[in-house]
Amino acid sequence: PGTVSFPPVLPVLALALLWLLGGCTGKSSESREEKQRQARKVAEVNTQLGREYMSRGQYEIALDKLKKAVKADDDYAPAHTMMAVLYETIGENEDAAEHYLAAYKAAPNNGDVNNNYGAFLCRNGEGRKALRYFDQALEDPFYRTPAVAMTNAGSCALDLGDEQGAEDRLRRALEFDPDFADALYSMAALKAGAGDYLRARAFLQRYEATGALSAQGLLLGFEVEEALGNGQGATAYRKRLLKSFPNSAEAKELIDAGGRAP
Fold it and tell me: What are the E-state strand segments in 68-201?
């Protein structure tokens, strides 16, 4: 009774050690963050170099740069996307699929990433799976080109034989951007395919008003005007196609069908 106990020395030493360890942990964390920043910088630089070499057709050098980017920072989605594009360009679709998926895993909420992955899936016969990624692209509040995703979704739905779904998505694309040329052309082609040539003509006129000029658009114009019985209009499209795109597959199709310009 009445015994006074004093706190042992050990807890004090333990506190001191914890404080020192805490200081070391902070420095380690700071060092780790700096390493991550440096790794991301290396990935960004090499991705940009890879993009530039790809644009010049120097695919081997581009691939080397992109591999360095991915090695530096495996969570950098643009590096995986560029790698996927390169592999797809050279016909290595399995590798392309791997990197489109890696980009998605690195940035699952990014609109561009979702659109790119969806477009790849659609090009490779996985249209139903692709539609989910196009819809998910629109959930990104910072996605700048929703009309692109919806136009791709419309084309994908059409490939699946869903004409109504295709039209709904293309109309939504035009709500985002009324002058988006790809959506206008796709709507014109959709209406022409359904035999609604007057509406096809209207969308085609809007398409041309954007300043877009393509062999596909001119051939479609020829077909629409011919279907409407407008020989003069069809001839005008025929001449424009053969003059502007003489070596195109569309020009060859027109010539083979007896549409050679006089």
Answer: none
User: Cβ distance 22 to 15 under 8 Å?
Assistant: no
Half-sphere CA count of 69, side-chain side, radius 13 A: 26
Distance CA(219)–CA(26), nearest Å, equals 66
DSSP one-letter code for 144: S
Q: d(Cα 30, Cα 18) in Å, to the nearest integer?
A: 18
pTM assigned to the model:
0.81
- Written as tens digits, the pLDDT of the chain (262 aa) is 444 433 444 344 443 433 334 444 555 666 888 898 999 999 999 999 999 999 999 999 999 999 999 999 999 999 999 999 999 999 999 999 999 999 999 999 999 999 999 999 999 999 999 999 999 999 999 999 999 999 999 999 999 999 999 999 999 999 999 999 999 999 999 999 999 999 999 999 999 999 999 999 999 999 999 999 999 999 999 999 999 999 999 999 998 887 444 4
Q: How far apart are CA 260 and CA 243, in angstroms?
A: 11
Question: Rg (Cα) of the chain, in Å, rounded?
Answer: 28
